[in-house]
Specification:
The chain is α/β, with parallel strands linked by helices and 416 residues long. The protein contains 13 helices and 19 strands.
């Protein structure tokens, strides 16, 4: 049996490796010159850079952890406790915000607690803005939840649905809130994903390279056509395969798949997403892993500190290195460090080292999302030998371990 996988990201490579272990003849097509997709790492003048956000690994699924650590042994990872902060009105507040209210000014904390106690009554809203207020109360939303989400989505929150949030955002109950106020110690307020692993050397690319080892991969190769002839799939009018697994963004897939019905094409065209620029920069050393910036006074919404993930982030020992993110269209980064609306000056933006733009960053779960995906999934479920996989193939927001688990489940169900 021959299978072609479109895209050499986490999902595509894990599926390729799992199929190869079952004896399938697998070929992976990747348009970029290097593999990894959104989980790539590169070095710029000795500085480690995860250009699509720092991809860390943790998992509640033992089968995923075992598989990953068999590829890259656990002694090659750094085990780290998450130390995320929120920069609010010149202060560093521990994350998550709703369980760190004791760090606010007294009156602000009182407002947040008061509104939270009055929340979660009545019918649960179906749009994302009202859903946030219903779950967290008006004050928590005014201080943090709404401005931060407005920045990261750059899309009207009232036009987003909420089902995608199930299981993704831990929702505190009122006992959690009281307990957090009494503890007054952020190290004790544990949360999901409070610990994680990151490779000691080579960035997350170390795992990617281990996945890719021994796999037949055509890099720098764009798939321009996909067609079904008899019982085979034809890639680029020449290569024949029994199976196709596509991790390509659905709006891109619609342009290469032959004979796609107009209704399916329209649904794939209607899918919403946003784009992202990350900028690697030199900064003072810090033990903060991620910093969230809700204020609309600054263009960046989040900073990931590479130097807090690995001691090998910089060629100079003890030097701080971070990467901040800005949602939106591609722009010129020249002189960015001289602009006062990019980052708070307290962060110490010393020098730009590198930058990267990605067209497809986050899936936007607008109010047409489920209708469009129902149409799309119904169509592809009827295509023999064709599977969708990954964040962009299934148009969903998945962590790295979920992508691997989905690959495992897909390969298990395939008749190979």
């Amino acid at each position: 049996m021959k299978a072609a996988i479109l895209g050499a990201g986490i999902s595509g490579l894990s599926a390729a490796r799992l199929l190869k272990e079952k004896g399938v003849d697998v070929t992976v097509y990747e348009k970029e010159t290097t593999v990894g997709g959104l989980a790539r790492t590169r070095f710029t003048d000795g500085y480690l850079y995860d250009p699509y956000g720092g991809h860390i690994f943790n998992s509640k699924h033992p089968i995923v952890k075992e598989w990953v650590f068999n590829l890259l042994s656990q002694d090659k990872w750094k085990f780290t406790e998450r130390n995320a902060k929120i920069f609010l009105n010149g202060r560093y507040i521990s994350y998550p915000f709703e369980l760190s209210l004791c760090e606010l000014e007294t009156e602000d904390a009182v407002n947040c607690i008061h509104d939270f106690i009055l929340s979660q009554y009545g019918e649960r809203p179906t749009n994302y803005r009202d859903w946030l207020v219903w779950n967290f109360g008006q004050s928590i939303c005014d201080y943090y939840m709404i401005p931060y989400n407005e920045k990261i989505w750059s899309y009207p929150l009232e036009n987003m649905e909420t089902q995608w949030m199930e299981g993704k955002m831990p929702l505190p109950d009122k006992k959690d809130m009281i307990r957090s106020m009494l503890l007054k110690d952020s190290t004790e307020r544990k949360m999901p994903h409070s610990t994680f692993f990151y490779p000691l050397e080579g960035g997350i690319q170390s795992l990617i390279n281990a996945m890719a080892k021994g796999i037949n991969i055509y890099t720098n190769t764009i798939v321009t056509t996909l067609a079904r002839r008899s019982d085979k799939w034809i890639v680029n009018e020449k290569e024949e395969y029994d199976y196709i697994i596509s991790t390509l963004p659905l709006p891109e897939l619609k342009n290469i798949l032959k004979n796609i019905p107009s209704t399916i094409y329209e649904s794939m065209s209607d899918l919403k997403f946003n784009s992202l620029t990350t900028v690697l920069f030199k900064c003072p050393p810090t033990d903060i892993t991620w910093l969230y910036i809700p204020s609309h006074n600054y263009r960046s919404h989040r900073v990931g500190y590479q130097s807090a993930l690995t001691p090998n982030a910089s060629p100079i020992e003890g030097e701080g290195v971070g990467a901040f993110e800005i949602i939106g269209k591609q722009f010129d980064v020249t002189g960015l460090e001289m602009q006062n609306n990019v980052l708070p000056e307290e962060l110490g933006y010393i020098k730009t080292l590198d930058h990267e733009f990605t067209k497809y960053a986050y899936v936007i779960f607008d109010t047409n999302y489920r209708k469009n995906m129902a149409v799309i999934n119904n169509y592809f479920s009827g295509l023999e030998g064709f599977e969708l996989l990954g964040r962009w193939g299934r148009w969903n927001y998945n962590n790295m371990d979920t992508c691997i688990l989905d690959s495992m489940n897909l390969v298990e169900k395939m008749e190979v």
